[in-house]
Amino acid sequence: MTRRHTAGVAAAAALLQAGQADAARRQLALLVAEAPTDGEAWYWWAAAQDAVGRESTAIAAYHEALRRGTTHETEAHAFLASSLEKTWRAGEALAHIERAVAVQPDHALFLTILGNVCAALGLRERAEDAYRRAMAADPALGLAWHQWGQWQGTAGRLAEAAQAFDRAWALGYRG
Fold first, then answer.
1. Tens digits of per-residue pLDDT, 121-143?
2. Helix axis angle, 108-120 relative to 73-86, nearest 10°?
3. Please, are residues 111 and 131 in contact by the beta-carbon 8 Å criterion?
4. What is the per-residue pLDDT for 1?
5. For residue 165, which of 155, 147, 21 has the smallest C-alpha distance?
6. CB–CB of 147/131 below 8 Å?
7. Where are the alpha helices (DSSP H) in the chain?
8. What is the mean pLDDT of residues 65-77?
9. Mind listing the pLDDT tens digit for each residue in 36-51?
10. Fold category of 1-71 in CATH
11. 74 — pLDDT class (breaks 50, 70, 90)
């Protein structure tokens, strides 16, 4: 890759991380077209699609990033799993999130995704364990508390669910 291309990917990634997903998507579309073998461009393209809820496009792009060799391999597996779970493909997601958690076993977001996937598959004990581990790994991750609240609610533990939702809200999580 040229320095200009690499700098363009870095600039698009910075836009995405600054919350400017549409601007990042426009720039990354050009960069992926310019260098279709660049795993980094595919990873950030996938992340940009994911950020705007285009799960199907994100799934294909995460697969391409992994095939092309992104340096964000662990994250690509985790976020691919999340996108797969959101599109009712939890069975396919499980291997990806397990791979990410094997590399980073205390990553709260990855553990939350694992909990979501296991919950979708009806693996109740694994889901509960993953959510508990996520909250222990990062007690300030509002998403983990929110997902724990949903889990508690589906189990009929409404007081615990309310406490978890209150904690998520206090941490700034707004869903």
1. 999 999 999 999 999 999 999 99
2. 30
3. yes
4. 75
5. 147
6. yes
7. 3-17, 21-34, 39-51, 55-68, 73-86, 90-103, 108-120, 124-137, 142-154, 158-170
8. 97
9. 999 999 999 999 999 9
10. 1.25.40
11. very high
User: Which element (helix H / strand E) includes 100?
Assistant: helix 90-103
Closest CA to 130 of 85, 76, 166: 85
pTM (predicted TM-score):
0.94
Closest CA to 27 of 43, 46, 13: 13
**What's the average model confidence in pLDDT over 61-90?**
97
Architecture category of domain 74-175 in CATH = Alpha Horseshoe (1.25)
- Sorted by where each begins, the domain ranges of the chain are 1-71, 74-175
Instruction: Name residue, tokens 């694992």.
Output: 114
Kindly state the tokens that stand for 131. 């959510």
Mean pLDDT, residues 85-110: 98
Q: Do domains 1-71 and 74-175 have the same CATH topology?
A: yes
Q: Which two tokens stand for residue 71?
A: 């340096």
Question: Which token pair is 73?
Answer: 């391999």
Rounded-to-integer distance, Cα 43 and Cα 62, Å: 6
